[in-house]
Amino acid sequence: MNAPLIETRNICGFADSQVVATKLAALSHPARIEILKHLSASHSCCCREVVDHLDLAQSTVSQHLKILVDAGLVRYEPDRQRSRYQVDRDALAGLSASLTALVNSCCSGG
Question: What is the CATH number of the domain that holds 78?
Fold first, then answer.
């Protein structure tokens, strides 16, 4: 089940540091980035389709998908005997906005 992380704002307007760090940690593995790329090319995929695309063991892909789901970057839906996964585009856009705000703040010195 997808357990989205609730983003809280601190007084500077940045997303909670722990939330951002958790999402970035989920993106810290090349296979998970490839999974996101693959998922973003379609509405949703089952694990088997990702396995076929990446040529990784199903158990490995399942673990990577679980990390992405737990971080709130990918949505999970049970679909009969197969599970369907899709990119949470709003979550990725929020992460992008948080990183942009952080970089802008650091570069401006404020």
Answer: 1.10.10.10
Nearest CA to 65 among 84, 42, 41, 89? 84
Per residue in 7-36, pLDDT (tens digit) is 444 434 446 888 899 999 999 999 999 999
Q: Find residue 76's DSSP bridge partners.
A: 85
3-class DSSP state of 75: strand
* Cβ 48 vs Cβ 82: under 8 Å: yes
> In terms of residue numbers, what domain contains 74?
23-92
Helices (H) and strands (E) in the chain, counts: 5, 3
Assigned domain for 56 exists: yes
Note if the pTM is more than 0.70: yes
Q: Can you tell me the distance from the alpha carbon of 33 to that of 18, in angstroms, rounded to the nearest whole number?
A: 20
Counting the structural domains of the chain, the total is: 1
